[in-house]
Amino acid sequence: MAQYFDNANLPSNIKEFETIFLNTKFSFKSDNGVFSKDKLDFGTRVLLEALPINEMNGDILDLGCGYGVVSIILSKFIDGNFDAVDVNRRALHLCEINKKLNKVSNINFIESNCYDELNDKKYNYIITNPPIRAGKDIVYKMLREAKNHLKPNWQLYFVMRKDHGAKTAIKDISDLYKTEVICKEKGFFVIKCFFD
Ligand SMILES: C[S@@+](CC[C@H](N)C(=O)[O-])C[C@H]1O[C@@H](n2cnc3c(N)ncnc32)[C@H](O)[C@@H]1O
Description:
binds S-adenosylmethionine; alpha/beta
């Protein structure tokens, strides 16, 4: 099945949209062949709104960053160092454009299949709206291998629709983390994964 990130042959049609988060206006350039090309995805907004932004700092990973919404928005409110990874080159190109457009500087965008290019780097927070359409193996790899990339006692947050298997995902990772559903909105669950 063709995926939105198999985009090498799709004609480009860059567009720009604006969105408001915590009374701050953001502009994003988007294109054919990237996730949620017309607007900030609803699940991503639910995820962002559920995060404990006021407590967050340190090293933060935006996993499956698309055209950069999560790290670009968070970097306006959090004094942290962000890495953001994706496999979609077109999305990563947009990330660099969006970084300049929104005047943020503390984000490194990296082409990486999951954690492959991050070596042993560890984070205070890993944040993801995982790529359901990439399949269960990739999604579970992202969720399970987060454990190896979190500093001791820090956290993974992800959003998943109930009908995309949120409860099964929680069960699958329960041998690795404690989990808490911190928000449920219109069928989207935001899940915090943490250690004892
Ligand atoms: C649901 S989208 C979320 C995008 C963005 N974070 C947002 O919230 O709008 C998931 C992203 O994961 C990326 N992705 C798919 N497979 C991946 C992989 N193996 N490693 C890293 N990123 C991947 C996709 O290209 C896509 O941009």
